[in-house]
Structures are given as C-alpha cells and as structure tokens.
Automatic annotation (TrEMBL):
UniProt cross-references to CDD domains, sorted A to Z: PTH
Residues the UniProt record annotates as site (Stabilizes the basic form of H active site to accept a proton): 94
Gene: pth
Annotated protein name in UniProt: Peptidyl-tRNA hydrolase
Family: Belongs to the PTH family.
Length: 193
C-alpha cells in the first residue's frame, strides 16, 4: 500500500487558475516544478498528467480538466487504466475548515460539502478510502458566501500563507509516498518546521 496517484483538484480555465478552489492544482504544479517535470494534457484521463519516481515508487500526477464537481471522472479514468486502488490515491484539495497556512493529511471520511470530493466518493464507491491532503483556505464566516469565496482569489497575505503550506506539503511528499504517514503528518502538522 503506497501512493501511486496524486491528484490536485481545481477548475479549468484562466478564470479560475488563481482562485482558492484551485489550491490542489497549485500543489501539483509545485511538485512538478520541484522535480523538474512537465504536465501534458491527456484527453483519455480528462486532465493534465505527469509521472515521477520517488523512493523507487512510480507515481502519476493528475490535474483534472473537468470542472470540480466532475473530478471523479478524471480520477476513475486514470486509476482504472493503471490499476490503482483508492487507498493508493492522494487527493489534494482546498479545505474551508483550516486556516490559510495549514495543511492536514486524512484517510477516508465524508466529503464535508466539497463537490469535488463528493463526486470522487460517488464514482470510486462509498466505501473507498483514499488519502487527502487538505490545504487550508479559511472560511468566509457565512455558509451563503462559500461559493463566491472559493471561486475568488485570496488576498496577498492569504496567498503567501497558502503557498507556504503547499511548499511544506511538497517537501513532505516523499514521506507520504513511502506511507510513513506518521512522520509526514508530524512534519506537516507542526508549525514552522
């Protein structure tokens, strides 16, 4: 049981690229930069893909080009093609219940109102447990403001905090890949490490 697929959720198009809902895609782009890889569009996987070898483990990277609420279509397409089980998948996504600057790892659980996660759960199967990298974006304070909040750009200060959490997550990725979840969680969840 190791991570074989890492997916960064977001919405396609220039209009959304800098919005809070796309922080999962930002994480994949940071990974690609760190390991000097490139993302290329792969229509059969409904997204942009790349390939890494970390700790002797082959890993596929995916940024879906479907809209957020159809993310599962891309995840299922690539996971089926490469015979990747749900518990070998890591989904990186925005998390309203964490402040900017925080990132947390989690295995399984509900969708918490996140439409991308909801669609992935529906298509992988309700009992499927996949890993999540929850990247904090904060909450607007009112549930009626959530849609506009996630589809808008963070302030410069929030942007810096979100990127520092993503940088930390990128540095923890090798620990995740070898399933040293305890060490990865300790490293990721400790402030200023």
């Amino acid at each position: 049981m190791t991570i074989k697929l890492i997916v960064g959720l977001g919405n396609p198009g220039v209009k959304y690229v800098a919005t809070r809902h796309n922080v999962g895609a930002w994480y994949i782009k940071s990974l690609v930069e760190r390991y000097q890889k490139t993302l290329k569009e792969e229509s059969k996987f409904y997204g942009y893909t790349s390939h890494l070898t970390l700790c002797n483990q082959d890993i596929w990277l995916l940024v879906p080009t479907t809209f957020m609420n159809l993310s599962g279509k891309a995840v299922v397409a690539i996971a089926s093609f490469y015979h990747i089980e749900p518990n070998d998948i890591l989904i990186a996504h925005d998390e309203l219940n964490l402040l900017p600057g925080s990132a947390r790892l989690k295995l399984g659980g509900g969708h918490g109102g996140h439409n991308g996660i909801k669609n992935i759960i529906n298509l992988l199967g309700r009992n499927s447990k996949f890993n999540r990298l929850r990247i904090g974006i904060g909450h607007p304070g009112n549930k009626d403001k959530v849609i506009n909040f996630v589809l808008s750009k963070p302030s410069n200060a929030e942007y810096q905090l979100i990127h520092s959490a993503i940088d930390k997550a990128v540095r923890c990725t090798e620990l995740l890949v070898i399933k040293d979840n305890i060490k990865a969680m300790n490293s990721l969840h400790t402030p200023h490490s």
